[in-house]
Amino acid sequence: MNDYNAPENVLSEKVILITGAGAGIGAEAARTFARFGATCILLGRTVSKLEAVYDEIVAAGYAEPAIIPLDLKGATAKNYEDMARTIQDQFGRLDGVLHNASVLGQLSAFEDIPEDEWQDVIQINLTGAALMTQKLLPVLRLADHASVVFTTSSVGRTGRSFWGTYAVSKFATEGMMQVLACEYENRNVRFNCINPGGTRTDMRANAFPAEDPQTLKTPADIMPLYLYLMGDDSLAVNGQSLDCQPK
Ligand code: NDP
């Protein structure tokens, strides 16, 4: 589905929450979903970055987004409950969630992973997405068809030396997606994972500082699969982990 040619209004009438919407793949997903008709809810920890994406979307004449400033590191179940209530009051339902925000943490030998580093990466990449999903499910269930997309990585499928906590968080993300996909089979919420593959962002540059970024796909290049999974053309797809750049 990486050659998916999305119909112009494939996301019209859809309300979609994107985490980590201020930079990298999340910012591009927000701009793209808005261009294809969605009303976007931009969640992230740096308000100025969210505001810049908001301004671009409004300037382009697309549906006005909402902004939720939230640092997943300190967020609690109560924050997510409040967020779900606000979304229900403002929009009446939620049609999609792109769980995109993540941190890489330090790449190091397993023996050297500091305890606080482990806790932070698991909190942001896994627990945040888990609690948010749990608290958003009632408002997702109010949509005709809702799509929840988690973001995985190739190191979430095959372990690799020195990718420590990040890799473990992505393996667990794949597992969480499968559990949810089974529980909600034949209901109105579907769950899948996307693996972007190497993409030209700050995270990739931090992981591979010697790499020439010009050799990588841009976030815009990989959007067809994101549009496919968010739109109703993928209604039958549940429990899959799909690659933007299959080998
Ligand atoms: P970036 O580091 O460029 O962007 C990550 C986004 O997540 C930023 O907007 C960042 O906000 C936000 N974020 C980080 N921590 C928190 C937090 N505690 N609370 C709220 N928001 C937070 O990453 P990419 O765009 O490269 O990655 C997007 C997703 O794709 C991630 O899940 C990543 O694991 C995955 N991925 C990326 C690959 C790549 O090659 N780029 C390859 C495989 C997977 P802020 O800007 O304010 O820090």
From TrEMBL:
Keywords: Oxidoreductase. The keyword Oxidoreductase applies. SUPFAM superfamilies: NAD(P)-binding Rossmann-fold domains. Gene3D superfamilies: NAD(P)-binding Rossmann-like Domain. Coiled coil: none annotated. Transmembrane segments: none annotated. It holds the Pfam family adh_short. InterPro entries: NAD(P)-bd_dom_sf (IPR036291), Sc_DH/Rdtase_CS (IPR020904), SDR_fam (IPR002347). Signal peptide: none annotated. Belongs to the short-chain dehydrogenases/reductases (SDR) family. PANTHER family: ALCOHOL DEHYDROGENASE (PTHR42901:SF1). This is YciK family oxidoreductase. It comes from Salinimonas profundi. The lineage of its organism: Bacteria, Pseudomonadati, Pseudomonadota, Gammaproteobacteria, Alteromonadales.
